[in-house]
Design goal:
- This protein is of the alpha/beta class.
- It has one domain: TIM Barrel (Alpha-Beta Barrel), CATH 3.20.20.
- The protein contains 10 helices and 4 strands.
- The chain has a 4-stranded parallel beta sheet, with helices on one face.
- α5 links the parallel β3 and β4.
- α5 packs parallel to α6 and α9 crosses α10.
- The longest helix is centred in the C-terminal third of the chain and has 29 residues.
- The C terminus is likely disordered.
Length: 242
């Protein structure tokens, strides 16, 4: 269940959760903006198993730019509260690639969230007509592929310093890591298998079978992304992936 920030949304959420848990026996997750720890405990007691948090941005600067409600610190505090209530591995933070984030900011945020005990689901920015970012382009598939593999490596135990160095380059191209990295991340059995991507050119693959079909294409996209990222990083004077 995904909530919409409006007056009375929490009471509406409770009503729907109660109706669902009284009718079916299925895993239940809720994605919401920050609420109190008391309300988190109430949701868990009702039967909610996992919590999603739409942090979206990878840095405080991007967070302000995209005009998220609340503050960066409030969201991080909320993630901490949610982990205390639901436990490690049962809080999934949504991050959107393509909002103007810096690569190093992304790597360090991933490591921070992983160390906290949160999972991370990656989305690609999708422009929506009529919104303030309607003309902002989605990220290139190649760059998104790099971000996917970096997420996988951080969760396999690599430190940010290893990713942001020559050693990280070979690991990013490692086939075994890549095979896992391109699959949809987030809650198990998520019913949004392609997230917000197009079926014809998916950013996230919902199954190993579909990924196997496109693996050569995807690995070529990864190589293109690495090449592009090297140029961006070189122009910015930052030492990474080269």
């Amino acid at each position: 269940m995904q909530t919409v920030l409006k007056e009375g949304f929490y009471e509406e959420l409770l009503k729907v959760v109660r109706e669902v848990v009284s009718s079916v026996r299925l895993p239940l997750s809720v994605t919401t903006t920050p609420i109190s720890r008391r309300k988190l405990r109430e949701l868990k007691e009702l039967g909610v198993e996992r919590l999603g948090v739409g942090l979206d941005a990878c840095s405080p600067e991007v967070f302000k730019k995209v005009r998220k409600p609340y503050t960066w610190d409030r969201y991080l505090s909320f993630i901490t509260d949610a982990l205390k209530v639901f436990g490690r591995g049962r809080v999934c933070v949504h991050l959107i690639v393509g909002l103007g984030e810096g690569f190093e900011d992304y790597v360090h945020l991933l490591a921070r969230l992983k160390n906290m005990g949160a999972e991370v689901a990656l989305f690609a920015f999708t422009p929506v007509p009529g919104t303030p970012m309607a003309t902002h382009p989605p990220p290139p598939l190649g760059i998104y592929r790099v971000f996917q593999v970096v997420r996988q490596l951080i969760y396999e135990g690599y430190a940010p310093e290893e990713i942001l160095s020559n050693r990280g380059l070979w690991e990013i191209q490692r086939a075994e890591a890549a095979r896992k990295a391109f699959l949809s991340s987030g809650c198990p059995s998520c019913n949004r298998p392609f997230y917000n991507g197009r079926v014809t050119s998916p950013y996230n693959y919902p199954s190993r079978e579909l990924l196997a079909r496109d693996l050569v294409k995807v690995l070529n996209e990864l190589k293109e992304g690495l090449s592009s990222l090297r140029e961006v990083v070189k122009d910015a004077g930052v030492h990474t992936l080269s």
